[in-house]
Design goal:
The chain is an alpha/beta fold. It has 11 helices and 14 strands. It has 2 domains: 152 residues, VC0802-like (2-Layer Sandwich); 164 residues, 3-Layer(aba) Sandwich (Rossmann fold). Helix 3 runs parallel beside helix 4 and helix 5 packs across helix 6. The termini are far apart.
């Protein structure tokens, strides 16, 4: 059994626990920003291929106590790095410190690189090269107050990069955060889903992949393929099993629209590249003019925030218009808005039934759930 740590956007840890449980992981331990678990390497392959929520799957290869840079060097040097990857593989080191006593994380990173290279020299007479842009192997070190944990990254590029090179408009939402929001909304395949501010189409793509049971990692490669213990036959078998499970691409009651014609074009291009254009219906229409495609369903939107649009006054004017459109047309729908603008419900004069704290990268946001009932949803003054 190996120990792993799956990182994820903060606020989605419970969803990641559910995924890892379904995949058969053991010793599941959630913490802030990720979940520890144990299992064999095929489980690690599956987690990379099938998790919609994780950002990276890190394989723990060592841990030790330290008080200074020399202790850290020794803890890293004593590990058998040549058994995990070949000297011909370029690598990089990323260090994260929490309550770390060392003065410089940059110097700590250098000492870890030196220790790995020295261990290779001692074992095979040469050292691997460093590549900080596109390394074949990524080593992660987590430095706490007294102990260090060392990991090899089995993902490579972050898992929210689903394999299609997507065009985007302005600040795109990360795919794993979008998938998490869809899951938090309670949407299930077969239910109508509408994103009336679709931007580059991230919610639409994630929902279509869920509806058609397409594994999010089925179009890309992974870091574990570069490691010495890579089991190619097991990986091939897993890939074939997952591909055979995917359903044919047909319309899935997923609807997207945007007031910006360029955004609609970008969404269409991204869906087309992913082979999912037929699963979604797109239209060029302003949020305030959108007609609901069904009597009930789930509406999810990531409205522009001040940081993206740069005009707080414009937003303050937009929110009441959005609210008016929702109240007029969308009774029977559950609506979800991800924003870092905490004024949104007040300016919409609508009462959220839930406020879920989430992080879009470094931005602290809220996912507001507003259930649209017949008539006004306004909180009456007592």
């Amino acid at each position: 059994m190996n120990n792993f740590f799956a990182t994820c956007p903060r606020g989605l840890e419970t969803l990641l626990v559910n995924e890892l449980t379904a995949l058969g992981a053991a010793d599941i331990k959630p913490t802030d920003g990720g979940v520890g678990f144990s299992g064999d390497m095929p489980l690690c392959y599956r987690a990379n291929l099938e998790s919609r929520i994780a950002t990276r799957i890190l394989w723990q290869v060592g841990r030790g106590r330290y008080t200074n840079e020399d202790d850290l060097f020794q803890a890293v040097y004593k590990l058998n790095w040549p058994q995990w990857f070949d000297v011909k593989r370029d690598f990089m080191v990323k260090v994260t410190g929490v309550k770390c006593p060392l003065k410089s994380l940059e110097f700590a990173t250098l000492r870890i690189k030196d220790a790995i290279c020295d261990r290779f020299r001692q074992a095979v007479g040469s050292r691997p090269y460093i590549d900080t842009r596109e390394p074949q192997v990524r080593v992660h070190a987590y430095l706490a107050a007294e102990d260090c944990q060392l990991y090899i990254d089995t993902s490579g590029n972050p898992l929210y990069q689903r394999g299609q090179r997507r065009a985007s408009v302005e600040a795109p939402l990360r795919e794993n955060l979008a998938a998490g929001i869809i899951q938090l909304s309670g949407w299930q395949p077969g239910m109508p889903l509408l994103d009336p501010m679709c931007g580059s189409g991230t919610f639409l793509l994630e929902a279509a992949m869920m509806a058609l049971d397409i594994a999010p990692g089925s179009g890309r490669s992974f870091g574990f393929e570069q490691l010495n213990n890579f089991d190619a036959p097991a990986w091939q078998k897993l890939g074939q099993k997952v591909l055979s499970r995917a359903k044919p691409v047909t319309f899935q009651k997923i609807y997207g629209s945007d007031a910006d014609l360029r955004a609609v074009r970008v969404s269409r291009e991204n869906l087309k590249q992913a082979g999912l254009l037929d699963a979604v219906q797109l239209s060029h229409v302003d949020m305030t003019e959108v007609v609901p495609p069904a009597e009930s369903g789930v509406l999810i939107a990531n409205p522009p925030y001040g940081i993206r649009i740069g005009e707080d006054e414009a937003l303050a004017a937009l929110y009441p218009k959005m609210a008016e459109a929702l109240k007029r047309r969308f009774s029977g729908w559950n609506t979800y808005f991800l924003t870092n603008d905490m004024r949104l419900p007040k300016l919409m004069r609508l009462s959220p039934s839930k406020r879920t704290p989430l992080f879009n990268g470094p931005l602290e946001c809220r996912l507001f759930e507003i259930k649209m009932v017949t008539g006004s949803n306004r909180r009456e003054k007592s």
